[in-house]
Structure formats: structure tokens, C-alpha cells
Amino acid sequence: MKLISLTFGHKIKSPVIGYFFLAYKTMEHMSTMKFAKGWKTWSGARYICTSLPQPYYFRRLSFFRQSGSSAEFTYIMLIQIEHLMVSAETALNLASSLRQRLSAYVGVYREIDFTVFS
């Protein structure tokens, strides 16, 4: 997959930072470069970043496009959002509203540290 990334600020590890993970399937005729160049609009990236309620704001947005034909999803977008995990209910409600507005598979996750003992 090829990466298109917009970054605002440095990566900060925090228990309140959360991520929206969006995966898009497309028809064969839709995976053209012309279509891909308009990704900020059709992926919902503009909508998501401008409609986040306070105190949420996006810190990083990464957009991936498949480079081969074996992937199930053609495009994947990952949005790092500050304060998303302050309230899990709010994060899940935001994800639910995105599912209704966008033609994408939507997930919410956060980073955790763990140790595996053998």
C-alpha cells in the first residue's frame, strides 16, 4: 500500500488518544488515480476533521492505497484523534454516526502497552 500522510504535531503516547480506522472497498473502475486524488472528499476526511466536537481534534491522518490487486480493501484511512478515549461512549457514538454517513467499515481503537510472559 502507498501512504499519503498529513501530520500535525509529533507522535505523543497518551491514554486519551484514540484512532478511527476506516476501510473502503471500491469497484474496479473506481480505483483510478483521478479518483484517488479526490480522497479527502469521498473518504469523508474533510467531514470528519471539520465536524469533530470539542475537545476532540485530529492530530494525524494517514491514507493508504493498495498497490497490488490481492487486498480486500482498496483504501484505508487512519485518523489519530486527541481526547477520543476520554469517554468510550462518545467515541463509539462518533463511530456509529460515521458508519451511517460514509460507505466505509469504521472501527475505533487505542494503543495499549502489554507484556507477554512465556
Kindly describe this structure:
By secondary structure, this protein is of the alpha+beta class. It has one domain (2-109): Alpha-Beta Plaits (2-Layer Sandwich), CATH 3.30.70. It contains four helices and five strands; from the N terminus they run ββαααββαβ. A five-stranded antiparallel β-sheet has the order 1-3-4-2-5, with helices on one face. It is globular and about 40 Å long. This is Reverse transcriptase. Residues 13-111 form the DUF7153 domain. InterPro entries: DUF7153.
Major sheet characteristics: 5 strands, antiparallel
Content-based structural category: alpha+beta
Strand content: 25-35%
Low-confidence stretches: 1-8
Task: Assign an overall shape.
Answer: globular
Cross-sheet strand order for the largest sheet: 1-3-4-2-5
Distance between the termini: 34 Å
Portion in helices = 25-40%
Give the number of helices.
4
CATH architecture: 2-Layer Sandwich
Count of separate structural domains: 1
* Average predicted local confidence, pLDDT: 80
CATH class categorisation: Alpha Beta
Strand tally is 5
Helix and strand succession? EEHHHEEHE
- Computed over alpha carbons, the radius of gyration is 15 Å
- The CATH topology is given as Alpha-Beta Plaits
Protein name: Reverse transcriptase
Domain DUF7153: 13-111
Pfam families: DUF7153
InterPro entries: DUF7153 (IPR055577)
